[in-house]
Structures are given as C-alpha cells and as structure tokens.
Amino acid sequence: MFEDNRGMEKLDVLFANRYIDAYRAFQKNEIVTTSLRIAFQSSKEPLLILQHIFLGINAHINLDLGVAAAEIMSRKNVEDINSDFNGRNTLLGDMIDSFQERLNAPSPFFKLVDKLA
In which domain, by residue range, is 35 found? Predict the structure, then answer.
C-alpha cells in the first residue's frame, strides 16, 4: 500500500508505543509530556465526549506523530516519506464515517449534529 511498507510499520509501532508508554508512565505518576498528561487527567473530568476526543487527538497526533516521524527519519530527508505520510492521512480520512457512527451510538446529540452537518 505504501512505497515503504517497512518504514510505515516502524512509524506505526513508534507512534503507538509513545501513547502506550506515556499512559503507563502516567499510571505510575511518572513524567509524561504535558499535552498527554492533561488529556489523561481530564479523563476524570465531566467533559463532553468530543472534548475528550479532541484532547487525545491533539496530544497524541499533533505531538507524537511528528516525534515518531522524526525518529524514523533521523539522518534522512523527511521529504522521502511525504507520499506515504499523505497516503496515511487519506486512509485515516476514509475511516471518518465509521468513527462517526461509533461516536453517534452512545450519543443521540452527536447523531443529530452529524445528520445536520
């Protein structure tokens, strides 16, 4: 599917492990990045489902994905994964409808907003 399947697999593993490692560290009261610490701490707060999702997405994707990409491209030209990186974004975009259906299931409000949008 990608020009560099091994590289994208490595990116997936690094990306996922950043979240898993941070969650485990948070559970042990160890230091984690500020963005993930705030997202994890807010899981106990009475926020809207969408607010929790945005906190997690911002913390994990906006920081961890860039860090993981930089790690796999250490001493390489980051432009070399541009096509695969954009392909990954297309793949994620194709999953939006499925995600919306799962989000709508427990929330009649989101179902209504989704239909209106």
Answer: 5-116
First to last CA, the chain: 32
Task: Say whether 1 sits in a helix, a strand or coil.
Answer: coil
Q: Write the CB contacts of 107 (distance below 8 Å, at least 6 apart in sequence).
A: 49
Tens digits of residue pLDDT in 35-92: 999 989 988 888 777 787 888 888 888 889 889 988 988 888 888 888 988 888 888 8
Q: How far apart are CA 38 and CA 36, in angstroms?
A: 5
- DSSP class of residue 30? -
Q: Which of 26, 52, 49, 48 is nearest to 37 (CA)?
A: 26
- The total domain count for the chain is 1
The residue with tokens 């593993």 is 13
Say which DSSP state 79 is in: G
* Beta-carbon contacts of residue 65 (< 8 Å; ≥ 6 apart): 15
Q: What is the pTM of this model?
A: 0.74
